[in-house]
Amino acid sequence: MAYTQPHPRLSVVSNSSHSSVDHLSPTTTSRFSLPSVPSLHSSITTTKPGPNRPNIYDRPLNKTRSAEVSASAFAFLFSEVVQYTQKRVSGINDLERQLNTLGYRLGTRALELMVWRAEGSSKAPKRELKLLSVLMMVHTQVWKAVFGKGADALERSVENPDEYMIIDNDPLIERHISVPRDMSQLSCSSFTAGIVEAVLDGLSFPARVTSHNTPTVQYPNRTTILIKLEKSVLEREELLK
């Protein structure tokens, strides 16, 4: 695969504090009335979800479904996650670190689900051993499984052979995020970076993954996921040649 000229690496260094957000109201519980006890001669019937309301627990996990979650619901949930996390950190770096941790937890489960589905399919699962094949899998399959579409580009750094970059011109999680001007260095795609780092760790390709805002006129939300591999990965890659 041919790689295009990589984009410059951006660093996110700031000690600015965040303004507090509104306190989230506690979830209220609904009160249900119990039906009357049936007589001994009456039969008890169990109602099942109709055709328009399938039970989510009855859906097979080994079948991939597209567009199961609405974009508006995802945007609202992620916005609440960012606000909840923002209230418990002291700066931009700390906020990005917490989002990365949350993304790492999701990435671990996403990889487990993808492997389980591959084993349940008729096609025999194949474990990738080459670095480029693993990065291509993250670039396409992981992105599609989590965000419903593949990433836009995969690039390799010319100056540093241990650095690769995944480019997303229009990240789903950045689409409805409005970052204040004094927090312009914040990249909420640190959540995505955590997902990528968890997948690479799970596949025995340990790396440090960070996200950086690289906007253009055509793509103002363009994001670069920077992958810095550990030395052991490159040494193993040399032995497999």
Automatic annotation (TrEMBL):
GO biological process: endoplasmic reticulum to Golgi vesicle-mediated transport
Region ranges (Disordered): 1-55
Matching CDD domains: TRAPPC5_Trs31
Assigned keywords, A-Z: Endoplasmic reticulum, ER-Golgi transport, Golgi apparatus, Transport
InterPro entries in UniProt: NO_sig/Golgi_transp_ligand-bd (IPR024096), TRAPP-I_su5 (IPR016696), TRAPP_component (IPR007194)
Coiled coil: none
PANTHER family, A to Z: 41-2 PROTEIN ANTIGEN-RELATED, TRAFFICKING PROTEIN PARTICLE COMPLEX SUBUNIT 5
UniProt protein name: Trafficking protein particle complex subunit
Organism field: Pholiota conissans
Phylogenetic lineage: Eukaryota, Fungi, Dikarya, Basidiomycota, Agaricomycotina
